[in-house]
Write a structure and sequence with these properties.
By secondary structure, the chain is of the alpha/beta class. It contains nine helices and ten strands.
């Protein structure tokens, strides 16, 4: 979004986006609902699990790109379901072939099936290989400020620390680590995983995150389309609040909204 007085685009790998909400494409009842939710959210970047979604691998099955054409959306292929660096790199090389040389990708290398927490050793290994292979890498990572800085130094285009476990809806469990990552990053910081409702997204943006990526929070809501609309507004409100600069917290000092000087009967 762009406020009236402050140009405020999200810049990733040299490209400008007016929306700071990135959305996933899984868990919807069909591609028609996926399309409607994405349009309602206002998102321009949509992430696609290459191992789980057909974008041309199987010509006999419905193709997601017919519902979300690359001419209208930036497709962000991801490595969901990969548990080591080699599989992740192989998956994204396949995605680049399927998408005619597209090089903006989302890397995630998971540690185990139960928590889906990132395996940072394998993530760092895969990130280094992909950057050398001229990919523009947006990378899912733990909320570890040291690991986030290492990924930035490798050359990743954005770091994407989790708020909480993928699909948990628990919101931001460690805002302090997230704040350290934001304060020290020179690349965009996109919260990825764990957002459950609009207030979670707003809090991430108020902290100073550059954007939020979500899927389950929208796709599994009772009304996904209405939730997509709510998330759009939350991202915009949180960003405006961050830019405005909140008042300082004063836990032991009350401050009246109206001035006390010049009251009738007071000298």
């Amino acid at each position: 979004m762009t406020s009236k007085n402050i140009p405020d685009s999200l810049i990733i790998a040299g490209k400008s986006y007016h929306s700071r909400l990135l959305v996933g494409t899984g868990k919807y009842k069909d591609f028609a609902e996926t399309r409607t939710a994405v349009e309602t959210s206002g998102a321009q970047i949509v992430t696609v699990a290459i191992r789980r979604t057909n974008i041309g691998q199987d010509p006999k099955q419905p193709n997601l790109l017919e519902a979300l054409p690359p001419s209208q959306f930036t497709i962000l292929p991801n490595t969901a379901g990969c548990f080591n660096a080699d599989d992740a790199v192989r998956t994204l090389r396949l995605a680049r072939e399927l998408l005619d040389g597209h090089d903006l990708v989302k890397l995630e290398v998971l540690g185990d099936q139960k928590t889906l927490f990132p395996n940072m050793a394998e993530t760092l290994k895969a990130a280094a290989t992909l950057v050398k292979d001229n990919f523009k890498v947006m990378v899912y990572c733990s909320d570890d400020p040291i690991a986030a800085k290492q990924l930035e130094e490798i050359g990743c285009a954005a770091v994407m620390p989790l708020a909480s476990l993928i699909g948990s809806g628990m919101g931001i469990l460690n805002p302090w680590n997230l704040q350290i990552i934001i304060d020290n990053a020179k690349v965009p910081v996109i919260v990825d995983a764990g957002v459950g409702t609009a207030s979670d997204a707003a809090i991430a943006m108020e902290l100073g995150c550059d954007g939020v990526l979500m899927n389950t929070a929208i796709a599994t809501a009772k009304n996904p389309i209405l939730m997509a609309s709510a998330m759009k507004k939350a991202i915009e409100a949180g960003r405006e609040a961050f830019l405005a600069g909140r008042m300082p917290k004063k836990p032991y000092t009350a401050s009246p909204s109206s001035p006390t000087g010049g009251l009738i009967g007071k000298t």
